[in-house]
Amino acid sequence: MQIQIFQDKESLHRAVAQMFIDAVKAKPNIVLGLATGSSPLETYENMIKDHQEKGTDYSGVVTFNLDEYIGLEGTHSQSYRYFMNTSLFNGLNIPLDQTNVPSGIGDVNEICKAYEEKITSVGGIDFQLLGIGTNGHIGFNEPGTSFDTRTHVTALTQETIEGNARFFESEDSVPKKAVTMGIQTIMDAKKIALIAYGSKKAAAIRDMVNGPITEMMPASILQNHSDTTLFLDEEAAALLKAR
What we know:
By secondary structure, the chain is of the alpha/beta class. It has helices at 9-26, 41-54, 80-87, 108-121, 158-164, 183-187, 202-210, and strands at 2-6, 31-34, 62-65, 67-69, 99-100, 127-130, 152-155, 177-180, 191-196, 228-233. Helix 1 packs across helix 2 (41-54).
């Protein structure tokens, strides 16, 4: 596990974006795993800016997103399909039919199975982007999730619901379940980049890096991944320095 620490968010996001840009240039048909939420927003902005100014070509890229809320149509303003279209895909020259976000509508168990099969059919994910929850979740794999899980339906913890309430009209409006890539699906990615910034993430980063590998800290399994880089600001890394 490699750790890069930045003095500010701007330089952090530029570095992450450049890593993805370089990966796309090196392999034009690369399979990217993508994340939602506030953590990657500025990374995506940098990728769009590069595409507009330098013409990096995404026409051969295939993407898979980590997760989606159950019960939200893709046109809902808080669905992750809507988020990805408006925050990244619409700003690149990637065909939308090459972008994959799990559906939260319909037979979700069949959706999970088909999603996993589609990832396998393209040879797996080359480069996966992650954030981390304050409770150590990656994707929506909450504490206690088995490390051998594949794409599945998960109930969100109260902590996660409260953390996401700022994006909805009220806490009651936050969906209580989601479809998420499983931990083994994430671990199968050939390369992983994880973004974390702010003091609220410091304890999770400390436990992820320094603590035991345990299902109660889902991100700790990344200690076993062969090519993971953490992109942290100084606040998120603060407790690492206190070892």
